[in-house]
Specification:
alpha+beta, UDP-n-acetylglucosamine1-carboxyvinyl-transferase, Chain, 4-stranded mixed beta sheet, 14 helices, elongated, binds uridine-diphosphate-2(N-acetylglucosaminyl) butyric acid
């Protein structure tokens, strides 16, 4: 098992180029299967979830070429929709997008129930409700979701999501873009990667209108063509660097981002006493002494993102005063708290709320990442802690962060990978 050994107390300083967004990459990679020709995706990060997706596509018979500089060329003349490898699929969440894609393309799909981070119950009832409305028969047994289009093509429908779900919104966009007629997804997710996917589908010749609002309208088209598309930057990776600047008392500029997407994080950091400025496609966060306590509640976009909640909690563990962090999306996203307590944090969790009594400084300890962002939180905490912290379970971190130790070292962090 690999671990990151981090010596705290070295302020991070300098510039870091942010990689392509994980949650865009895992949506556009399966979307490429909807095109009749080759599709070239750029700015795709080298992370575990992308590697898993590439392996899945190859196992199904798609041609996937990895180009230098983060390009992926994907072409799938024929696909064996039943050859989806069970173990790879259950390793990650976004494997559920193959349901929408295969139904749209092949009229049938057999996909294991998805895996992904253990952050509380993660049902897929809204995906299934939507696919049924589009004219698919869906059955779940023995851990496999089996879906079949009742007529040759899916047919457009009006779908109201009972909960705003990023995954269901994207899956239904994928399924609907080659359906017959018009689909309307109401109470849709507004996250920037939903918009990124819509941009790709429209470039392919699809008709997606309203992505980024809570009502997305998709006029189905029979064929889509292969195109080139570069995905947007990962605002959660960017947020992680800004939060690491905060814990380590540093001064970090993230480059290649869309500052608007970072505003919920920038606003909280300003409230906590950091100097945060945007300049073109860069955002700089500079420390001005010890952070002050703030209250945070995670919400769907444009609220404070749940994916940044865990590293934010790590920051507030050593802020001056008492902070309250409320998780508005997932039931079990506080598993990092027990590990932060090993480092001297004083945090009490009640249901979906963490009450944090800031301590002057955390102390290095052996800790374990239980999921991707828990790992990021422990890294952020370790950079500001006294002494050395060994963060075990870094395979979770590698699922979503490209070359984390290389980027940290370039900013002056004292980090070593072992094992
Ligand atoms: N939900 C339902 N039924 C559904 C789908 C979702 O009740 O059919 C509930 C969930 O239980 C949750 C809420 O709706 O309470 C939101 O879940 P959502 O579907 O939006 O999340 P997801 O699609 O499973 C994606 C990201 C997560 C990110 C969330 C929220 C991917 C692959 N994953 O998950 O990313 O936290 O949206 O923004 O895009 C991460 O990157 O660390 C990560 C976990």
């Amino acid at each position: 098992m690999a671990k990151l050994s981090i010596q705290g107390g070295h302020p991070l300083a300098g510039q870091v180029r942010v990689s392509g967004r994980k949650n865009s990459a895992v949506a556009v990679i399966p979307a490429a299967l909807l095109a009749d020709g080759p599709t070239r995706l750029d700015n795709i990060p080298h992370i575990g979830d992308v590697a898993a997706y590439v392996a899945i596509l190859r196992a199904m018979g798609a041609r996937v070429e990895e180009e230098a500089g983060g390009g992926l060329l994907i072409e799938a003349e024929r696909l064996d929709a039943r050859a989806v490898p069970y173990d790879r699929m259950t390793q990650m969440r976004a494997s559920y997008y193959l349901l929408g894609v295969l139904l749209a393309r092949e009229g049938e799909a057999e996909v294991p129930l998805p895996g992904g981070c253990d952050i509380g119950p993660r049902p897929i009832d809204q995906h299934i409700k939507g696919l049924r409305a589009l004219g698919a028969e869906v059955d779940i047994s023995h851990g496999i979701v089996r879906a079949r289009a009742l007529s040759r093509r899916l047919r457009g429908a009006r779908i109201y999501l009972d909960v705003t779900s990023v995954g269901a919104t994207i899956n239904l966009m994928l399924a609907a873009c080659r359906a017959e007629g018009t689909t309307v997804i109401e109470n849709a997710a507004k996250e920037p990667h939903v918009v990124d996917l819509a941009t790709l589908l429209n470039a392919m010749g699809g008709h997606v209108v309203g992505a980024g609002t809570d009502a997305i309208r998709i006029h189905g088209t029979q064929t889509l063509r292969g195109v080139e598309h570069a995905i947007i930057a990962d605002e959660i990776e960017a947020a992680t660097w800004l939060l690491a600047a905060a814990t380590s008392g540093g001064d970090v500029t993230v480059q290649g981002v869309i500052p608007r997407h970072l505003e919920p994080i920038a606003a909280k950091l300003r409230e906590a006493g950091m100097a945060v400025e945007e300049d073109g496609d860069a955002v700089r966060a500079a420390s001005r002494g010890r952070l002050r306590a703030v209250s945070v509640k995670t919400l769907p976009y444009p609220g404070f993102p749940t994916d940044a909640q865990q590293p934010m909690t790590a920051c507030l563990a050593a802020a001056e005063g008492n902070s309250v962090v409320t998780e508005g999306i997932f039931d079990g996203r506080f598993k990092h708290v027990e590990e932060l307590k090993r480092m001297g944090a004083r945090i009490r969790v009640e249901g979906r709320t963490a009450f944090i009594e800031g301590v002057p400084c955390l102390s290095g300890a052996p800790v374990q990442a239980t999921d991707l962002r828990a790992g990021a939180a422990l890294v952020v905490a370790a950079l500001g802690a006294e002494g050395t912290t060994d963060v075990g379970g870094c395979e979770h971190v590698d699922r979503g962060y490209e070359d984390i130790e290389g980027k940290l070292r370039a900013l002056g962090g004292q980090v070593r990978r072992e094992g």
